[in-house]
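FAQ: What does a multi-protein file look like?

Like this. Sequence, then tokens, then the next protein.
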Amino acid sequence: MKQTVVLLLTFLFLTAACGARNTPGTPTHAPQSSAIAPPRLSYQAGACDEKNIADLQDQVTFSTAANKILIEQQVRYVCCAKIDMVLQQEGSLLKVIETNTGKVCKCICGYHLQAQIENLPPGSYQVQVWGIQFENSQEARLLGEGAVTLPVGEKP
């Protein structure tokens, strides 16, 4: 029995020692990552505007400036809302998801929403705005979609 234990310990020791040995050309530590920061969404939701609500049309426009994607939106929605946004990226598809984290009430007003997406490498992107979801009672729907290209030569 002692022989079996001694042989087993010797085998484990030699296996561990061989595994720890560094072969030529193999780094002794993991290489440093030079990953670019993930895309970042910043946004501003204007105050509820009850004037001219009858003439307000929901619309979303997309543009670029200084290697950022800019989103401008007019939307009719409930007066007591607090609209928050998050960004989801699936390759070159960027989805902005709008959520009402406030309340739902019976009055309607217009909101001017502005957002920008930064830290993107140059390239072509499809941008979608989904909103406005509220808890389990109102699912997000596609409010706007556009193709934008960030030019080469500008840093993210």
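And here is the next protein:
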Amino acid sequence: MLDVRKEELGLPAGREGLVVYHEHRGPAPSPHRHDELEVNLVVRGSATYLLGDRRYDLGEGTLAWLFPDQDHVLVRQSGGFAMWWAVFHARLLRRSCATPETASLLDRDPAGHLCRRLDARLARKLEGLFADIQEASSASESALNSAGLAYLLLSSWEAFRTSEGAVEGHDVHPAVEKAARILRDETYAGDLTRLACAVGLSPSRLSRLFKKQVGLSVSQFRNESRLERFLEIYGRGRRVGALEAALEAGFGSYSQFYRVFRLAIGENPNEYRRKLDGAQSIAPGELPSATVKSEGVVADPPDEVGLDARRGEPGCGVRA
């Protein structure tokens, strides 16, 4: 099993949780886990989560719970995707979850499907509560902040318990899960034969399974991961040129990067930089999405990915 980092969220001193509004305009997180219980509410667009060895497709109104011992990563986000997420410290959970109905929130990896789609009215009500708690938490004393987080926690759990729209997970082959994590975490991962060798499948079988279970080809997923790394490097505050950032992100050449960037963002890197520099005056949501369009991504030259897949060469002695 690929090692997954345990993330320290760095909650502010005295705070027992955090509420954040996330819009897909930059890098996707790497596979991770953390000691805090997490809840996500999708308010716009769609996304795909890898949660352990299962895939969950989240749409508008989906409420998803992520527990401390569950490895999770967003592997795909649509253009315009947005969600609220909140995390809750174990101290707050122990104080707040004192009934049989809330006992499951104290588990670190409970059984069952923990994603449900709320009806529109309930989703809007909960969305408003996330926004209210976030606004209040920035100015509240720690005791009031904790009270607000506890109310959000219990309200979200009650909304989940009373909703019947279960979102079924789909089994993901362990090799596909491992390949996705390698492509997310390792800058220069990409050669299909070596990737297949690392996960124990032939290139042709990995290519077929990955497309079927993740919804993107290996080439598309790799390009999306590289583009998200580029956006993180290019926009993190230090002044780097597009070429330097593209190579650091794992692209093999500027021309390859430029084709992928134009298809995904709809403008050239210099135009994007100008918008990035003026982001202070741009309203949320106006920056272009970082999602790579599945139908338009230009693959790498055949000798990197496509040729191996077409030949179906059984690298490392594994069977197709």
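Q: Is there any per-entry metadata?
A: Some entries carry free-text notes. For the entry above: Residues 1-6, 279-315 have pLDDT under 50 and may be disordered.
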